[in-house]
């Protein structure tokens, strides 16, 4: 029996979503981006949104998303993805528009854009990858770098007296009246990835129902920038990042809940 005879619908256990291109991912081993790409691609396919989806990704590792998801894309300048998304959703209100941004992009140069887009309640989804570092450009300290974390610009660890406090920007976003669903998830285990997928699906549904901005933070690893093995990076994230950025829903306007910690 040949392999082609075995690959029949009744024998298929799992198949790669057609939304993902047949393009080998370039991301470093252990990088969280590939997992999040897969979850987002699966949901776009399962929800029948391929023809109406427009993604916006700016500068940073996020920019390579164009290569991997077979949807319409629009490039944005560093930090400006929410501004571009605002224009698109107002011009095409029946489309599904999302941004895909890293923490250096969203929480630093793009802080004004994300705060005002969320405050206006633009009907977009924001995927926020928080690995606590500038991954692509050399491992510099980001707004989300936690206290004591070593980066190329804080070789002795982040010092709050010198560098300020790590920014919990998702908590700030949850306070804005234009946001309908704000959550913080991770993808470092199979269980966490399943929870993250459910959260992204809920966020997409809220956007399609025109309930305002949905915001999904994904606490992530950057083992290359952190100078760790993939396994070591996951362990370090669990021991250090997640205690500072605890996982779970911060705001669910449908349930009337706002559980953001201080």
Overall mean pLDDT stands at 92
CATH class equals Alpha Beta
Number of domains as seen in the coordinates: 1
Q: Assign the structural class, choosing from mainly alpha, mainly beta, alpha/beta, alpha+beta, or little secondary structure.
A: alpha/beta
**What characteristic shape results from the CA principal axes?**
globular
Low-confidence stretches: none
Helical fraction equals: 25-40%
- What name is given to the CATH topology? Rossmann fold
* Strand line-up across the major sheet: 2-1-3-4-6-5-7-8
Q: Helix and strand string, N-terminal first?
A: HHEEHEHHEHHEHEHHEE
CATH homologous superfamily (4th level) name: Thiamin diphosphate (ThDP)-binding fold, Pyr/PP domains
Reported for the largest beta sheet, the result is:
8 strands, mixed
Distance between the termini: 62 Å
What is the level-2 CATH architecture name?
3-Layer(aba) Sandwich
Q: What's the total number of strands?
A: 8
Radius of gyration: 18 Å
Strand content: 15-25%
DSSP helical segment count: 10
């Amino acid at each position: 029996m040949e392999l082609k005879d075995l690959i029949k619908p009744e024998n298929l256990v799992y198949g790669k979503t057609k939304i993902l291109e047949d393009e080998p991912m370039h991301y470093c081993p252990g990088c969280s981006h590939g997992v999040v790409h897969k979850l987002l691609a699966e949901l776009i396919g399962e929800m029948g949104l391929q023809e109406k989806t427009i993604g916006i990704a700016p500068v940073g590792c996020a920019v390579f998303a164009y290569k991997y998801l077979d949807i319409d894309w629009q490039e944005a300048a560093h930090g400006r993805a929410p501004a571009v998304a605002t224009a698109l959703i107002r011009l095409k209100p029946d489309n599904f528009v999302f941004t895909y941004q890293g923490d250096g992009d969203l929480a630093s140069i793009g802080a004004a854009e994300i705060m005002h887009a969320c405050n206006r309640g633009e009907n977009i989804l924001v995927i926020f990858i928080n690995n606590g570092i500038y991954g692509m450009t050399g491992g510099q300290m980001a707004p989300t770098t936690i206290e004591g974390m070593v980066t190329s610009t804080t070789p002795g660890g982040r010092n709050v007296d010198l560098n300020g406090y790590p920014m919990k920007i998702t908590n700030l976003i949850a306070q804005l009246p234009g946001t309908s669903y704000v959550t913080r998830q991770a993808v470092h285990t199979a269980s966490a990835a399943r929870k993250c997928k459910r959260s992204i699906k809920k966020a997409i549904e809220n956007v399609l129902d025109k309930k305002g901005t949905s915001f999904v933070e994904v606490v992530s690893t950057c083992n290359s920038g952190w100078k760790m093995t993939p396994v070591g990076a996951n362990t370090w994230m669990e021991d250090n990042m997640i205690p500072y950025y605890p996982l779970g829903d911060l705001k669910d306007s449908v349930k009337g809940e706002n559980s953001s910690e201080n």
